Amino acid sequence: MNFFRLLGDLSHLASIFILLHKIQTTRSCRGISFKTQALYVAVFVTRYLDLFFRYVSLYNSVMKLFFIASSCYILYLMKYKYRPTHDPSIDTFRIEYLLGPCFVLSLIFNYKFSFSEILWSFSIFLEAVAILPQLFMLQRTGEAETITTHYLAALGVYRALYIPNWIYRYFTEGLVDPIAVTAGIVQTGLYLDFFYVYFTKVLQGQKFELPA
Amino acid sequence: QVSPSNHDEL
Asked: How far are the Cα atoms of A1, A156, A165 from residue A7, in angstroms, in the given order?
């Protein structure tokens, strides 16, 4: 564990609390992509299957359980409690275009051709692109509530911080995880456009609006 | 030395 990874994980935690806060205070999940949230459940469940057979640390296990539980809870809130506030007609990204290629990639790129390792690779690739339905929705509506942008920023910062973590680990431990690093760089790259608008508008006190 | 499938990250 190093500073960058800890900060990244905390940012990930923060993003989930911001999202829950947004849903609870506005009593609405408007502007949140159900598809992206469902993909996160798939990501966490497939990656954290190792809870059953690998123990890393208490921190690691607690975080894994938290991510699975909170992502399922968010899905529940969107699907049942605040269902009328979710508009599927603007959440139209075709997730099969993500699931299919990620699955094929995981068959090709994995550290061992075993059930759990293939699922692990799949979850890494899927996480990299899971935000696309959300960004697509943002693009369609052209604007977002400020709190939603804070959620997305925290989520983007989380993976961005994993990059210095990997550089640090390379120099201190000689450790390189090419699958996670490649996917992580792609994942962070997807946020660049968003980050640009976030830093130049939202953090200057303006509303998040995309140019028409 | 390089053990990529450690999976100790979240």
From this structure: 10, 12, 10
In this prediction, residue A171 carries a pLDDT of: 94
* A145 confidence band (pLDDT: 50, 70, 90): very high
Tell me what pLDDT residue B3 has: 53
Q: How many Å apart are CA A153 and CA A25, to the nearest integer?
A: 19
Determine, for residues B4 and A175 on separate chains, whether the beta-carbon distance falls below 8 Å.
Answer: yes
Using CB atoms, pick whichever of B1, B5, B10 lies closest to residue A117.
B5
B1, B3, B7: best mutation site toward chain A, by most A Cβ within 10 Å?
B7
Task: Calculate the CA A130 to chain-centre distance.
Answer: 6
Which candidate from A60, A112, A177 shows the least CB-CB separation from B10? A60
* Strand locations in chain A (E): 143-144, 208-209
**A180-183: Cβ within 8 A, 24+ apart:** A180/A124, A180/B9, A183/A124, A183/A125, A183/A127, A183/A128
Predicted complex ipTM: 0.85
| Domain locations in chain A as residue ranges | 3-207
